[in-house]
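INFO  loader      accepted 1 record
INFO  loader      residues=219
INFO  predictor   begin
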Amino acid sequence: MQIMSECESDEDVPQLPADTLAVLHEFYTDQAARDRQLQEAIQGQDVGKVDLEEDWNLSQFWYSDDTADALTREVLDVAGPSGSVACLSCPTLYKRLREVKPDTCRVVLLEYDRRFNIYGEDFVFYDFNSPLKFDQPLEGKSFDIVVADPPYLSDDCLTKTAITVKLLTKGKIMLCTGEKMEDLASRLLGVEPCTFIPQHTRNLGNEFRCYVNYKTGLS
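INFO  predictor   done
INFO  writer      dumping tokens
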């Protein structure tokens, strides 16, 4: 049996290029900084300063600032200063609503990603595969408007999300999803596309649309 010296063994170990190592170092440094910011915000109960990164494994794609602002204005106009809003799988919209809404307006986030439990009682764990199951009590027909952005562009995901939407809304619905889901969305929820086109911080391969079941000036 041949025994390699330590030097020979080290030479056989693949070495990453310096520029790749630098990128990895920057990634881990940024990740550590984000984790530290999150923990400090939680301890100081200042979660408004937390910016959670998209998790592509959960099909998360954040709205652009302009889109979040436009949707927020529309939702608050519909709900009114003392209204209630349910955000299904759209945490970027929830975060912006939380920042600007009056204290008399109730906003709840139904979301699968448990990182968002930093928002306390506003967070409701939600899995579209169990559309009528929540980890805290929610009364039917209790929200002035329900906004949904299903994580997947599939008939199954939209159909199950629609069950939740119809359970919770008093009547008004906003849906942000792919253009190819228009026919099914119309059949399930009675929504129609408006002229406003949602934009994301990253370019997506599918065309997105905003659908509503009420008269809107959103454009």
